[in-house]
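User: For my dataset I need records formatted as: sequence, then structure tokens, nothing else. Please produce one.
Assistant:
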Amino acid sequence: MDLHVATYNIHKGFSHFNRRMMVHELRARLRSVNADIIFLQEVQGAHERHARRFHHWPERPQYEFLADQVWPEFAYGRNAVYDHGHHGNAILSRFPILKWENLDVSSHALERRGLLHCEIEIPGSGLVHCLCVHLALDERGRTHQLRAIVERVVELVPDDHPLIVAGDFNDWRNRAGRRLAAELGLTEVFRDDRGRPARSFPAGFPIFRLDRIYVRGFSVYHAEVHHGHPWSKISDHAMLTARLAVG
């Protein structure tokens, strides 16, 4: 079966440097891509100050607003909680999410991170495990979180079940890819002949290779980085998409 997936750090619905609120434009762009499963990071679950400041701020949480009428299933992992709101990771799906859990993988109190794990039933193909991640800015934190990913997969994902791990890895040195390949057998969909993933940040002219889509149990027949206009007006990260075939 052809499975179209995407990952996107949406910067809490704001453009680069927080110049403009872009939630409505973001929803239109997500719909134009028409992916089956979308892995989102920095999703605003609630923000009282933004709701008062912007008259067209959605009344519903961003993940519900973005999923509306296109992705009937969604899961949200609340990670960072503050007085006026909270944000985290989300997965939007066209297919049934049978089970989901958000695991706290924070390495310290000042940078809250979570691992959102969904089990999604794909018609005709069975169960696919989907992990949405947003790793820490510091190397020590990422090492802790990669260990949590490996332990989670080893414990709960059978070797013969298809697996997707996607999100913002903040992995400047590409150490995550080597570890996930060695310990879990994962392959990065954009990996070139030197083992490097795609450039995805900043969205206007990508230089850094921060965002990833890792898979196991799939063949990859197309991958694309969505950057430049109009993507650079919506978020500071580019969106990544991939078309996969099970098996």
